[in-house]
Amino acid sequence: MNDEHWADLREQCEALEPGAQLLTPVSDRPFRIGATASDRIVVRFADSDEERPLWREQFGVFDEQLEGQAMAIGDLQPGVEPYATVLTLTDAYAVEDDAIVATDDATGGDGESSFLVPAADARTPPERVHDDALLLAHLVEHLEIDDHRDLESLDTGSLTDYYVLASDVQRGADGLRSTARDELLERLGPDQQLHGRFGTVRRTVRERRRPKDDETILAALDERGIPREWVLGVDTDKLDVVCSVTDLEEDAVYDVDESVYVQKTDVDEDEKFERLRGLADRLDALEDADGEALAEELEAIEDRLEEALTAG
């Protein structure tokens, strides 16, 4: 690989948005660019924390193989996949018809790799919960919300943002809780409790019943001399059909209770991520004396909590 192409490749790697990921084209392994040097580009795989150097001379070998011919993505070997992925960051290479080609042989690169995952989309579920919780905490502080009575004074836009963020935090936290629950069930024995710093959990068994098939149920009733009429009822699915094809009015056979609720129909993830980056920049700016004082105050609080927990 000549100096111009190598310099361009390094520049594109260094210009990637912090947190952005790349995917290997066949195995879909996510990785990030760790560092670049004069003879290598270091990548780190997200699924294993494996760190691996991609050597300039190997990029050169790959480049020579692409001269005048396309390389089918499906034919890429696992060791070659990261090289192919990184190469598509530059305009010198493009993906056409499931193959990687030099742009001299293609219609020209568009500067967008199909294997690039933006930072906002590359976040893990725990990272998304963290980010949503941070946004919600900042909004609560900014709006000075202490209890539900403060919501009455909010403008509609702020109240909508408050609801959407609270909903996103709840949804994300429920997903994390379900994952943690499955892992805890592997560690919890009958009548056993597990303790953490913030609480205690135990195994709980709940029974959920569902009827057996009709033939089995009716046979059991007949065997015990129980009239079938005692358990036979109206099939609501069939009743809906009757209402739709006859003049039977719905209110003649249904008692209808109406409930009104707010449904979240859209979330602007791009706006949320931009706001997060703004918060991150502000946090980085806290490296002055005020930031140090805040850090010391937090450490003191943690020390007091640790002492209280130990004493308790």
- DSSP helical segment count: 11
Q: Give the integer mean of the pLDDT values.
A: 83
Task: Give the N-to-C terminal Cα separation.
Answer: 65 Å
Q: Write out the strand line-up for the largest beta sheet, numbering strands in chain order.
A: 4-3-2-1-8
What is the string of SSEs from the N terminus onward? Answer: HEEEEHEHEEEHHHEEHHHHH
Helix proportion: 40-55%
**What percentage of amino acids are in beta strands?**
5-15%
Q: Give the total of beta strands.
A: 10
Biggest sheet record: 5 strands, antiparallel
- Return residue spans where pLDDT drops below 50 for at least 5 consecutive residues: 105-110
Number of domains: 3
Shape: extended
Question: How would you portray this structure in words?
Answer:
It is a single chain. The chain folds into three domains: 3-120, no CATH class; 123-202, no CATH class; 214-253, no CATH class. With 312 residues, the protein is α+β, with helices and mostly antiparallel strands. 47% of the residues lie in helices and 12% in strands. A hairpin with a 4-residue loop joins strand 9 and strand 10. The protein has helices at residues 3-14, 56-65, 81-87, 119-122, 125-143, 156-187, 214-223, 236-245, 250-253, 269-284, 289-311; strands at residues 21-23, 30-36, 40-45, 51-55, 71-72, 93-96, 99-102, 116-117, 193-195, 200-202.
